[in-house]
Amino acid sequence: MSGEAFELATGIASLAELAASDLEPYDAVYLGSPYCDRYAGNLLERPGDLAEAVRRLADLGKRAYVTTYAAPRHRQVDALRRALAAGAAAGAVAAEVHGAGLARIVRDECPGLAVHLGTFAHVYTPAALEALRAFGVVRIAPPAELPLDEMVALGAVAPVEVTLHGKVPLGVSESCVLLGCEAEWGVGCPDLCRRDVFVERDEWVLKSVGTGVLTGRDVCLLEAVPRILADGHRRFRIETLSESPEYRARVGRVYREALGRALADDWTIDAGWWAALRAHSRAGFCNGFAFGRSGLEYVGAGAGAGGLRG
Amino acid sequence: MAVLLAPGGSPEAVAAAFDAGADAVYVGLRGWSRGGARGELTWPELAAAARRARGHRGELQVALNTIPRPAEQALLQAAVPRLLDLGVRALIVNDLGLLATLGRAHPPLRVTASIGCGAQMPADVAALAELGAAAVVLPATLGPEEAAACVAAAPIAVEIMVHMVEEFVLLGRCVMPAYLQLRPTPLPDAEPGARRQSGSMKRGGVGACFKICQQPWTLRDRHGARAERTFPARQLSRLADVPGYLAAGVQVLKLQGRSLPADAVRPLVARYRRALDAAAAGRAVDAGPPPRLPEAWTVVGR
User: Nearest residue of A to residue B223 by CA position?
Assistant: First the structure.
């Protein structure tokens, strides 16, 4: 990150999705889907595609990170080894891991890859992060529910990657809730989880990616950008794994502009930003976790930003 | 000889577990364990449980498996010497920071990486051992073959939670309750009125869980297709695999359920006691239907 004021990253699961994406707002991309080895075109199962994706990112001047499965089983480790090796050989600079086991594997077997600790590792405390530095962890994406004031404490140990926008994961499973819908919908795996499936009960809305449950509302920390920068954070993510290329580009552009303006001490929120974010949000915004509240709440002045459904 | 480790969410359940043949019982310290107050013991109850364990020549283990916030760290750390004074020598934790530091700070302690630490494969076991775990709890979704690979990964005790509810989200990793609704809970051993401000069960807060994953939800895609579903969940009983786990070198067979009443703990423990004894003696394990707890039961016991 030398020379950059900040880094804005996102996630892309497949080569096809990479090809369809305008990555101009981003500095780095996490490659692969951490949710399911059956995800169509998952770069974690296609070392050749992964290497090609890394090369394409390099051509664009972007950094490539390789993610890994959120809750891997032993039978998946060899595939991950192949992915990590292919990514490293092609020039990827880091691996994102979601547990101590894979962190140890990357440390021992992929010395050229830095270790980023992902959100599914559920590391909340500075002491835990300090302990994981033994495995080469140099960055952490905290769990979704960690408030901003606790992220400061983590940041004293290692850089924190703050998710500024997007539907964030609330849990991961070894089962797919969508597989039972094949007969009813006439659609099978791997197409089920790409149909933008929302999960509703009364006023609550979640999003399903099959084995993962996401917030139904988009986490939105636009109004908190100055505070987050003042806290010292400089690594950010827009969560777009299950989103369209249009979402990825437009939302990324909003935050790129917002971060730039805040760092230039010229902070005002452009009405066009809200319009762009709302145009890409089905169920409204939330950010309660960041402020120690229920996750689906919205804290801030953004008019109508909370939306009607959670 | 493998150990049968049973849950004790109340003084009555602790008694029932030891009476039914548990070698060890794990309890939650009020305010510091996942699942909330319904499955936790107060300090006097814990002291009594420790006496009962000694009377049975068994072991009492204590779950300190919430993940403390910065303001809670000192309070939690202050609990440890009190536990040692009661004769407790085994703690179960979810936070890798506690895993790495408690054993060094208090050498008599054995610290177990809770199932919430997410270990599912040999590399996880090796990593947690490197961080200081004396034992690691693995879910019943791992059969004897996978368990054997985990046993071989590091010279620490491997525990299998042989009877458990496999809820949709991996155990210890769900923040759905904290997303949907929070109810601040009292902060233990703190000033009166101090509340935990937020957080999932993992942080000691209790969201409006009420088995939300087991309520009917409507799945709707962008094309208008819809379906009614609950998130899949099932009770897992590995009774028939007890011999296989013993052969694999698993040292502890653990039963989930600090929210279970005593009259449910007793037969569950007795059933696994018979299985463990039979397997250890080379006899066939009872081939009857696996023990099944009430359908409405979950680890939180709402």
Answer: A195
Any long-range contacts for A51-58 (C-beta under 8 Å, 24+ apart)?
A: A51/A86, A51/A87, A51/A89, A51/A90, A52/A15, A52/A90, A53/A12, A53/A15, A53/A18, A53/A29, A54/A87, A54/A90, A54/A91, A54/A92, A55/A90, A55/A91, A56/A18, A56/A19, A57/A18, A57/A23, A57/A29, A57/A31, A58/A90, A58/A91
Which residue in A has a C-alpha nearest to residue B178's C-alpha?
A294
Tally of structural domains, chain A: 1
Does A306 reside within a domain?
Answer: no
Helix (H) or strand (E) holding A31: strand A28-31
Domain annotation covers residue A299: no
The predicted complex's ipTM stands at 0.94
Contacts of B122 in chain A (CB under 8 A): 74, 101
The pLDDT score that the predictor gives to residue B270 is 95
Instruction: Report the CATH number that the domain containing residue A257 is assigned in CATH.
Output: 3.20.20.70
Using the predicted structure, report yes or no on whether residue A310 has a pLDDT greater than 50: no
SS3 content of chain B, % helix, strand, coil (to 5): 40, 20, 40
Instruction: Kindly state whether residue A99 falls inside one of the protein's structural domains.
Output: yes
Question: A177–B223: do the CB atoms touch at under 8 Å?
Answer: no
Decide: A100 and B97 in contact? Cβ < 8 Å. Answer: no
A200 touches chain B (CB under 8 A): yes
Nearest CA to CA, how far is A100 from chain B (Å)?
6
Is residue A309 one of the residues assigned to a domain? no
A109 or B200, higher pLDDT: A109
For chain B, what are the domain ranges?
3-171+234-280
Which domain does A90 fall in, by range?
A: 7-291
Instruction: Please check whether the domain covering B3-171+234-280 is classified as CATH 2.40.160.210.
Output: no
